[in-house]
């Protein structure tokens, strides 16, 4: 049975002071929600403070990126070893990293390997761009990303995948529940071919892209979709709490 999962990607938002305030606003309410795994991914500069704030709670911490080397002369980078003292999760292959910072599948693959080697669970993002969708290439793109990003990696169950169509991220134009569910099923089938059926059945696959408290139910109602990676709406405490509440509640009914 796959447990529901919701992660908030704060991206490059919140100062350290604002981040602590946001956690304080949500902490008790999120902590009380049973039936969904809850993960906050604030900026690097807030990880230490938020790690302390979350001690003793049921809320987990994730980073938004990392480098693949463990230490050394890589000015400005953060290593998996550093993160593993603070976090359980790390978002990798986010489309903003792929497109603004030139991260190739080869780099993403090195990062996935480094995260797993350092007891961090990757939240691996895959998804097609608008032109690729319009050219009917969604499945080709996803297949290429999944194959390349997991190249040389033995089947593992300690990771999460997020299907994030690039055209839906931060645009207010979410995919439909049906579209998302169909592509997520395609990802699961691709994983079954790459690894095996049993691992593919166990891995959690999320939808991400303009998820809000008003549309989360449409995604979560599909048994193929195990939760959400939430960007903009995770910066509003009421919205994020409501997204997690609805996920736990609906997934408790829809098996
Ligand atoms: C994201 O950053 O992963 C994301 C899905 O953003 P948004 O919810 O704002 O579209």
Write a concise synopsis of the structure shown.
By secondary structure, the chain is an alpha/beta fold. The chain is built from eleven helices and eight strands.
Secondary structure: helix percent: 40-55%
CATH superfamily: Aldolase class I
Our count of domains comes out at 1
End-to-end separation: 9 Å
**Which regions contain 5 or more consecutive residues with pLDDT less than 50?**
none
Reported CATH architecture: Alpha-Beta Barrel
Named once each, the bound ligands are: phosphoenolpyruvate
- Element string (H = helix, E = strand): EHEHEHEHHEHHEHHEHEH
CATH topology (level 3) name: TIM Barrel
Question: Overall 3D geometry?
Answer: globular
Strand order, sheet with most strands: 1-2-3-4-5-6-7-8
Rg value:
17 Å
- Which percent band covers the strand fraction? 5-15%
Number of helices: 11
Mean pLDDT: 97
- Output the CATH class name: Alpha Beta
- Give the biggest sheet: 8 strands, parallel, barrel
Care to describe what's here?
There is one protein chain. This protein has an eight-stranded parallel β-barrel with strand order 1-2-3-4-5-6-7-8, surrounded by six helices. The chain is globular and about 45 Å long. The chain has one domain: TIM Barrel (Alpha-Beta Barrel). The chain contains eleven helices and eight strands. Helix 1 runs parallel beside helix 2 (47-54). By secondary structure, it is α/β, with parallel strands linked by helices. Helix 3 (80-84) links the parallel strand 3 and strand 4 (89-92). The N and C termini lie close together (9 Å). Phosphoenolpyruvate binds at residues 9, 11, 164, 169-170, 208-211, 229-233.
């Amino acid at each position: 049975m796959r447990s529901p999962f919701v992660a908030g990607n704060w991206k490059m938002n919140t100062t350290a002071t604002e981040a602590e305030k946001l956690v304080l606003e949500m902490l008790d309410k999120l902590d009380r929600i049973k039936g969904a795994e809850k993960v906050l991914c604030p900026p690097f500069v807030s990880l230490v403070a938020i790690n302390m704030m979350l001690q003793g709670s049921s809320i987990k911490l994730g980073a938004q990126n990392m480098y693949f080397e463990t230490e050394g002369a890589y000015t400005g980078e953060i290593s998996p070893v550093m993160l593993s003292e603070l976090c359980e999760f790390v978002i990798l292959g986010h489309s903003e990293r792929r497109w603004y910072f030139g991260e190739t599948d080869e780099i993403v693959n090195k990062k996935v390997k480094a995260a797993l080697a350092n007891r961090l669970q990757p939240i691996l993002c895959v998804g097609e761009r608008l032109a690729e969708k319009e050219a009917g290439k969604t499945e080709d793109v996803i297949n290429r990303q999944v194959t390349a990003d997991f190249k040389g990696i033995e089947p593992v169950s300690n990771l999460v995948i997020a299907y994030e169509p690039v055209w839906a991220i931060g645009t207010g134009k979410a995919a439909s529940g049906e579209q998302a569910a169909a592509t997520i099923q395609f990802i699961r089938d691709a994983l079954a071919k790459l690894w095996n059926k049993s691992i593919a059945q166990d891995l959690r696959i999320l939808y991400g892209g303009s998820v809000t408290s008003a549309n989360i139910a449409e995604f979560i109602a599909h048994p193929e979709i195990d939760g959400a990676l939430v960007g903009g709406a995770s910066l509003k405490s009421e919205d994020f709490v409501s997204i997690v509440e609805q996920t736990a509640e609906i997934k408790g009914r829809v098996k």
